[in-house]
Predict the structure.
Amino acid sequence: MSGKNSERAERKVSKRAKAAKIRGIMEQEGTAIETNTQGFNDGRYESVADLEDYEGLKDEARAIKEDAIARLPDLIDDLTAAVEDNGGTVYLAEDAAEANEYIESIVADADADSVAKSKSMTTEELEVNEHLEDASVDVVETDLGEWVLQVAEEAPSHLVAPAIHKSREEITTLFEERFDPDVPLETAEDLTKFAREQLADDIASADVGMTGANFLTADSGTMALVTSEGNARKTVASTDTHVAVAGVEKIVPSVEDLQPFIELIGRSGTGQDITSYVSLLTPPIDAPTFADEEFGDADARDFHLVLIDNGRMAMREDEDLRETLYCIRCSACANSCANFQQVGGHAFGGETYTGGIATGWEAGIGGEEAAEDFNDLCTGCSRCTEACPVKIDIPWVNTVVRDRLNRGADPDAFDHLVSGLTPDPEPAGLDLQKRFFGNFSTVAKLGSAFAPVSNWVAEAPPSRWLAETILGVDRRRDMPKFTRGTLRKWAKGRDSLADPDREVVLLADTYTNYMHVERGKATIRALEALGCEVHVADTSESGRAALSQGMIATAREHAESVADSLEPHVEAGRDVIVVEPSDLAMLRNDYERLLDAETFDRIATNSYEVLEYVYGLIENGADINALADGDGEEIAYHSHCQQRTLGLDAHTEAILDRLGFDLLTSEVECCGMAGSFGFKQQYYDVSMAVGDDLREQFTTPDTEDRTVVASGTSCHDQLTELLERSVTHPVEVIAPAE
């Protein structure tokens, strides 16, 4: 067996071990992580709602970062000149070793025994603390969360709130065991006061102060520090040697460019309109230092800016990883991610970075393999894309890395793949689990052809054992039920409308065509009732299944097949109707990466989700009375993740309301199923834990007797299992009876 195949075989047998690791983290840390991240995420919604033009501000921030990264070499030169003109020193380190050696030399030149540090993910990346401690230098973290973890000898689990996984009770126990305090530590205020007193002497007596930098301005050498505790200011003010450590991506052209980022970073990360401390420093500052009861000489201050490459300039040249450099480390991608809310950064993260953006960072600074253990926790649901203040397409970055891992990180093969020059087949050694789910349309076609026998075979205990052992399909998950007659066959037997107002084409996804056929039939009946003649496309698989497994070549083949099938309909003036929101997201968003620009634009511009289209028809004069009368029927409705990201959930709610249904809408953003994710043995527990919030909401006295409707296949399947009740699609309750 070759080395790569041996590694893949080892990964296959580790699925059970991965499940056990995740389960352990969830049991120990899950409650604190979920409570805190959901609190941050809810705060973000409230805070950004106060902005006059939130989307415009994000566009402005992204444009600044795009420009800065494009001009990065020149901006590095400009920043260097500005800092040196101010009296400071700039050192550009190629990697962690160079950076640490230089920092150690600064500490040695200052004859320093101790360093006080404010929070900095970049120094975590470089392992500065470990390097200095090996050189017999005491390093103290002054951020409360970082200090707690330093005392506990643990790694951060969140970009902004490093100790988010720890409860107040756990911190109390830690402090009592390590410090034996004189007074009881019963409240959060007690803990904070105790920590402040412990740290005060360490900060005042430190020889060197070290900070990161949220932003650096090339025009003046100004650095922006955004903190919640003011500890960064203290480390700078108390020492006469200040070392700032920052990745080169932190540079923006001018001080004026800071404005959108200051508006966005606190709102995006913790839901604060602005963080407690925003410090703009142009070091070396001219304030005197303080020590004991005396002020030091302001002229004696020494400033060093250590700029870090460590893979960033290579990321800048990588078409798909480049976006990662736009990241402002706000943690919105983590807070908005249902999976991260359950497992935190100790599972959903690498050596340094956590959350959705962690894959890009870890792959960029450590190679794709650095992201392998956690990359699949990203399901591509796209909620992080909406949350990101600089609009990074995080799911695409994660998909690209997944594809490279599938291919053994062969850059030549990948270059051909993304250029579209050759439709490279998936690698022969591709994980069987990914190959199975990525080609599920073939499985569905066979399952439908042999139904109902195929359903009986799939559920038989020996089959479930084999599926779990070979494919990692968790035996606790109900298998999908195939139908003998497909939607396409049913539609071919229908008479055309005598005098339609318009014609449309239905792209019936794999589930709608082979399994959830009733929702496809209801879609056709509803559209016909509103005067539309419905054609059904001769293909079903959009490529979503393959893309979610990182099988970009296969996804492109499906996209091209869909384009070939839809083009004649679009040319004939027919709009494209989609039932499954994740497929619409493919057509409107992902196809931009998979098809030529002209084809993508034609398909994206003319594609609609079914309830979105129904809403548009009624707004333009179609008779809503042609649809089913809700007559006060009580409904509990859950919208699909990507439907929310596309901003289409309101259309469904509006139609159900107008038809007279008594509507209660889920406040839970994610059902936890996420396509194949909930079927996978290593992630089944995460999937069900995410879904538990939804189960709780739909089993209250006000919801337990309502008809449950869900707009996505995954949501339908998960809710059916969670509630043990019948679940239907919104189009099925509004369509007239046959």
